[in-house]
Amino acid sequence: MKRDELIELLNRLLEAERSGVRAVSGMLKPLQEGELKEGLKKAKGDEARYVAGLHHFLKQLGVTPSGKMGDFADKLLAIDGIAEQLRFLNRGQGWVARKIEALLPTLTDQAMRDFFTEMLDTHRKNIAWAEKMIEQLTATVA
Ligand SMILES: [Fe+2]
To answer: What would be the CATH architecture of the domain defined by 3-141?
Structure first.
């Protein structure tokens, strides 16, 4: 991957993760303590960690990181119902995971490889966790 393509992708991922933090923060607000809230708190911490990491790598590449935020959070928070919000969250997280899957084989920098390997693994785990939550939530309602 060319340097400018890498920078573009890192900035888009940064904007997506930043929007992820805001989306999950909004989802957390009305929730009572419990497994769902705990898991979302962890997911929020993960997303925030990736914002910081992407910021770091962009600065290392000598560019000013994007200060923008994707419109993902606004779209998610306009959705009614936590189960549907989780589904939408997983679509966003799936997009991020696919971008990283394509990026990883092109990376030569070991610190970046380690970072994105962990980011991909965590996204996959958080997607699986959210799927489990959706199943539980929809089983309760049905
Ligand atoms: Fe994410």
So the answer is: Up-down Bundle (1.20)
Dist. CA 140 → ligand 1 center (Å) = 27
Ion ligand 1 residues within 5 Å by Cβ: 20, 47, 96
Distance 128 CA to ligand 1 centre (A): 13
CA of 39 to the centre of ligand 1 (A): 14
Does residue 7 contact residue 65 with C-beta atoms inside 8 Å?
no
Reported as a single tens digit per residue, the pLDDT across 93-139 is: 999 999 999 999 999 999 999 999 999 999 999 999 999 999 999 98
- pTM of this structure: 0.94
Q: What distance in angstroms lies between residue 122's CA and the mean position of ligand 1's atoms? A: 9
CA–centroid distance, residue 108 to ligand 1 (Å): 23
**Residue 94 CB contacts under 8 Å (≥ 6 apart), including other chains:** 127
pLDDT band with cut points at 50, 70 and 90 for residue 70? confident
Let me know: does 117 contact 104? Beta carbons within 8 Å. Answer: yes
